[in-house]
Amino acid sequence: MLINSTVNSIYQQSSKTTEVQKSDSGKNFADLLYAHKKAEASRIPVNTTNDAAQKMDTNKGVQDINLDDYFSRKPIPDTLSIMDIPLLLPTQHNVDTLAKYSEKKFKELMDEYNIPAPPANIEFDSEGQLVLPADYPYADQLKQAFEEKPKVEDALRTTAAIASHYVGIMEGQAWRDEMSTARTQADAERITAKYSYLFDDNRPATKIVLSFTEDGNMLVG
């Protein structure tokens, strides 16, 4: 079993749960996100002295995580299960931290493999597979680099997945805000009808594109 399987589960989860949760039972991502919002006024800053060692919002609380280790493909010790590995939550802090980390690692990869220019953008399809622009002249070189240094691609994939999930949850914020003011069942039904598109089972996941400037700076959007 590999730690990278956690990365895959993050992507799969994000592709399925961008709609507002319909059930009030259990701790879903929206519940966990609310738990962190109270602390955002005193948000822990991104560690800029060691880009790999960061405090991250997880389903096990704020934890110190070495992102180099997190995205490695080291076997999980027999004494641990995949459930013991903290799952990164879709929070603004995590998106910002992952974006900075991924951008740095991507620039280092480009330099190491002497790739002259980054693609205009990078996307991942619904299965988490890499999608490069059809006219990108260094596609084969970049794919080879990713194959040899998979944790860089994994970091980019996870950044896009967490960002997609975060945007999906935030799209439901207006509904949650209005529902908190509902005083009657009729109020609740009226508000839910207003935001019915959020509950469409066929609603596609929010598409995230990682765009790059000529010098490799990355924009998540």
Describe this structure in words.
The chain has one domain. The chain contains eight helices and six strands. The protein has helices at residues 4-16, 29-37, 67-70, 92-112, 139-148, 150-171, 173-179, 185-194; strands at residues 53-58, 61-66, 121-124, 130-131, 210-212, 218-220. The strands form two sheets. Strands 4-3-5-6 form a four-stranded antiparallel sheet, covered by helices on one side. It starts with a helix and ends with a strand. 28% of the residues are buried.
Q: Which short descriptors sum up this protein?
A:
globular, 221 residues, alpha+beta, two-stranded antiparallel sheet, 8 helices, four-stranded antiparallel sheet
**Order of strands across the widest beta sheet?**
4-3-5-6
Shape: globular
Sheet having the most strands: 4 strands, antiparallel
Report the portion of residues in β strands.
5-15%
- Note the run of SSEs as H and E: HHEEHHEEHHHHEE
List the uncertain runs: 1-42
Question: Total helix count?
Answer: 8
Structural class, by secondary structure, is: alpha+beta
Give me the Rg, rounded.
19 Å
Summed up, the domain count is 1
